[in-house]
Amino acid sequence: MTNLWLKIIRPKAFHAKWLILLLLVAIISLGAGGYFDVIQSYLDTEQLTFKVGDYKVSAYQALRSITILVLVFWLTAIFIEIAESRISKMKKIRAANRALILKIVQIFTYFIAALLALDIVGIDLTTLTVFSGAMGIGLGFGLQKIASNFISGLILMFERSIEIDDLIELSDGTFGFIRKASARFTLIETLDGKEILVPNEDLITSRVTNWTYSNKRGRIEIPIGVSYGTDIELAQKLILESAAAHPKSMKDPEPRVYLRNFGDSSVDFILHFWVADICEGRWLPQSEVMFTIWRVFKENKIEIPFPQRDVHIHNKSVD
């Protein structure tokens, strides 16, 4: 039933739109010419008047009000359809932002149309003051979070700090891809397939790491320790070659190996190398490079030590 009324108020066919436009012009012309006076004399009588308390509504007033409401909302629907067509052509704006802008235009336009229709029908808007005040208090307390999330969604939309398919990490450790951005929440798909609905307010008030904000490059870090008897220059060379040989390792910036520490049981290096698209994953390149380092260390008899402790027992002879 709802879809039927929507089709009547907002027809899609081109000929139906012209037919309703002609009907609108005819109704306005007849009303201006006084041709509805005869109809008013029959319908605007005491017998066809409905009373609700002190408020009276005649059949003519009811018919006139319904006609005005239909015409006003039909014109509003046509305006929104034109706005939707224009907004959909803004290819520089992402799809989620276009949908959000269209929703704002719809809400604002229908609100103005409702006020205009009530004024034309003759309903005194001042009588709604008490109701609107109570509703405002209810919105202030009950819908505070919803309003905050909606405004936060607008801020995210205009700042463009978070886009669809961005890889982000929240302060609570949530890590995943942005899959949907709506007026109230943002949908994050984690690496293990979970879908988390994050309120937009959290993305504004909390710290968010966007791994793909300006580029998709990502640095991978691997700590490596070798024994003190190792030729550390050879170890450095082998580590660099292992990273550079990986197909996803970038040439610019090139891999780097740094001598970081002389530890208790090992000489500690750290390897840095970059991948062009972090969205394709970091763990697999890291694992493959570590396997390569393990093999070349075995071939060159380089030992990766582990912590050891020597225990000395002294026996004292007791006379």
Structure, explained:
- The structure is a single chain.
- With 319 residues, the protein is α+β, with helices and mostly antiparallel strands.
- Helix content is 49%, strand content 18%.
- It has helices spanning 2-9, 14-32, 37-43, 59-88, 95-121, 129-142, 144-159, 200-205, 232-244, 283-299; strands spanning 49-52, 55-58, 167-170, 175-181, 185-190, 195-199, 208-210, 218-226, 256-262, 267-275.
- The strands form 3 sheets. Strands 6-5-4-3-7 form a 5-stranded antiparallel sheet. Strands 8-10-9 form a 3-stranded antiparallel sheet, with helices on one face. Strands 1-2 form a two-stranded antiparallel ribbon.
- The model has no long low-confidence stretch (mean pLDDT 77).
Structural class: alpha+beta
Unreliable runs, pLDDT <50, ≥5 residues? none
Strand order of the largest sheet: 6-5-4-3-7
Nearest-integer average pLDDT = 77
Extended strand count:
10
Order of helical and strand elements: HHHEEHHHHEEEEHEEHEEH
The residue fraction in helices comes out at: 40-55%
- Estimate the global geometry from the Cα principal axes: elongated
Distance between the termini: 109 Å
Beta-strand portion reads 15-25%
